Each structure stands twice: as C-alpha cells, then as structure tokens.
Amino acid sequence: MGVYVQKYGGSSVADVACLRRVAERVLQTQRAGHDVVVVVSAMGDTTDELIGMARELNPNPSDREMDMLLSTGEQVSIALLTMALHAQGAEAVSMTGPQAGIRTDAVHRKAKISAVEPERVFAHLAQGRIVIVAGFQGLTPTAEIATLGRGGSDTTAVALATALKAERCQFGKDVPGVFTADPRIVPRARKLAEIAYDEMLELASAGADVLQSRAVEFAKNHGVVLEVRMTFGDEPGTLVRKEVTTMEDMIVRGVAVDTDEAKVTLLRVPDQPGVAARGFKDLAQAHINVDMIVQNVSEAGHTDLSFTVGEEDLPKVRATLEGHVRELGAQGLAFDEDVAKVSIVGAGMKSHSGVAFEMFEALAAAGINIEMISTSEIKIAVIVKKNVAGEAARRLHTAFGLDAGEG
Ligand code: ASP
Ligand code: MG
Q1: Nearest to 254 by CA among 350, 180, 178
Q2: Which atom of ligand 1 sits closest to the CA of residue 153?
Q3: What is the pTM of this model?
Q4: Domain 3-174, what fold?
Q5: How many Å lie between the centroid of ligand 2 and the Cα of residue 259?
C-alpha cells in the first residue's frame, strides 16, 4: 500500500499529552497498512518564543543565526514524538530536514526547497519504520541550515509527499477543515468539503493561515491531493484538489483577514518614469515581497506611492529605503501598521460580473473606508483600518451568502 504523509502542526504537538495522542494516531495509520512519514512543527508557540528571545538580545539578529535557532524547535518535536512511538512499541526513527534529504536554496529564513533526496527515508520505510521528519528546515548548497518561512512545515510535508509519490498528504489541525472564514472572526463560517488549489492559494496568501501558500503551490504543480482535518477526531476534513464538484453556484468561497500587513508610503515622489522601478528594485534585492501597490493622483508633478508588505518585513523596508529617500526625490517615508487586508476569493468570479461592486457596496453600507484595492482573476482584496477588519469580513460573508444555514 501507498505512503501516507501526515503533518502535525504546533498546536497538535503542544505538550507531552498531545504528543502521546499523535503517536497513537500515527500508529493507527501504520496498522491500517500504510507506510507512514510524519512531518511535525515545533511544539505550541515555541517558534514565537524563540523569536522573542532573539529580539530581546538583538533587535536585528542575523538570518543565519535565526535559522540555527528556529530549526531547534522542530528537532525537539521529532525526538519526543519518536520516543512516544517507541514507548507504544512502534518502530520509528526521527530525521532532521537535512537528514531526510531536504535541499534548499541559500536564502535564510525564506528558503525554497530545491530538491528532495528521499533515499534515506525510503530505506527506513523499507525496514518497517515510521519516519518522523522535522518540518520547516533544509540544507543549503553550502551545508547551512535554512528555514522555509513561517508555516514552512506544510511545504516540507508536500515536498516529501511528492518525492515519495505518496497516496495522501494529510494535515492534522485543531480545526476540522478549511472554513469559509476564520470562525474566531466570523462566527457563522462553515466548513468546506472541498476547495480548488487556486482558491486555497488565494485564501492562503490573503492571510487564511490554514496551509502555507507555498505548500499549496507545490501541491498544485505536482497534483498532490491534500486533506485538511482534525488531528483528534474522525470527521472527514476538506479536500484540496484541482477539480471541485460543487463549484458552479458558489461565486465566493471564502473571506480572509490578514492583520500582518503594513502600509508604506513614499511621500511626494516625482511623477516621472523610472522612480517606481528604482525603489522596487531595492526591495526585491532585499527579498521583500510587496503585495499591493497604489500610486495616487499626480499633483504638481509629484505623487504619493503606497504599497503593502508583511509587518515582519518593516524593519528591512525601513533599512532599505530610508537611505534612498533623497535619491528617489521623495519628500519622506511613512509607515502605517494599523491596517489589515480583507479579501474575498472564489473561482466563480471568473464568470460573474459585478462582484467588486457588490463588495464595495457591502462595505460602504457598513461605513467602512477602503484605503487600497487589488484584484486577481479570482480574488478582490481591500486594505482597511485594523479595527474594522472583523466587521468587514462579517459583512462580506453575509453579503455573499456564505453564512451557516444558507445555501
Ligand atoms: N514552527 C514554524 C512556525 O511556527 C514552522 C511551522 O510550524 O510550520 O512557523
Ligand atoms: Mg498591520
């Protein structure tokens, strides 16, 4: 029978009792006749705690040392989970990312997996062992440890599933599946039985922290069917795949809120060719992902240029652009962390017009001001003040007929 890759996130392995229960789940899967490879995250909030300690010692820690530090979180989990399995009589072995053959590029803290060399994992499976792999980490071409970006264990799981030609790639969560919205923000959100890769991708990049977007991209490119489900429970979860049967009459499949965005404005830059190119080239070289970009109406040959970045990149943006403000001919640089992005996502938008209008109307009716807008074929996102983001999401969830009990 085929290989099952199972991934357990931080909250599923938060303490010793959780680890014991995860071990039972894993053992059940093996006893059902599958070869099992398990990818785990760091326990609970370990990664955040490690980041906190680093910042206390150094507000601008080196990326290499951060990777050295953060990769330890997952190593604690793999050793403890393997011990729990041994205690239950199972044959199991733990492996770090590098040991499991995860190779990456050289970009610390946001490394991309370049290859998986699965021979050692296969060899252990052939010996009847359950293989427990540390997520979120790999080895660079110069034999450095690199981490894959927050939530990167998801990508480890999908990459392994691809390399091992796994039959399933399951994600054990503390929620029963993918929801139309975060139930903590939108109480009337409901679970989806299935969702298309592209929709999941847009939701993930819109801030729905169900699966890391890079993991979904990887799954899409390799046709790996994902299953998001409750770690402890037997309810069927949400399948993420190419074709979604119930797609036809759902225009919007989900609403997402991302509060980790920040708005940066280059004030009064000269409205002439080349200015934007220069500014964004510097950001690209610093590996900063820019999300939305808006150039305001030109006034007397000058314009404000605003864009959004992840809040965690703000110190880097500051460092990168501050020295260049003069060179760009700008009058100054302004930062606003008090913003959030609210997005609606649905493949049904492709064949429907007027979705943007409906969205803006619902927000206007709630007196919510829109600061920036961006669209893709299947997504419309707006930037609003942080304190109205939840209300915006609830209004949109209702406006597009997603509330539980409807449709
Ligand atoms: N432990 C890492 C994080 O918290 C990676 C992961 O959990 O996937 O981001
Ligand atoms: Mg923010």
Answers
A1: 180
A2: 8
A3: 0.80
A4: Carbamate kinase (3.40.1160)
A5: 5
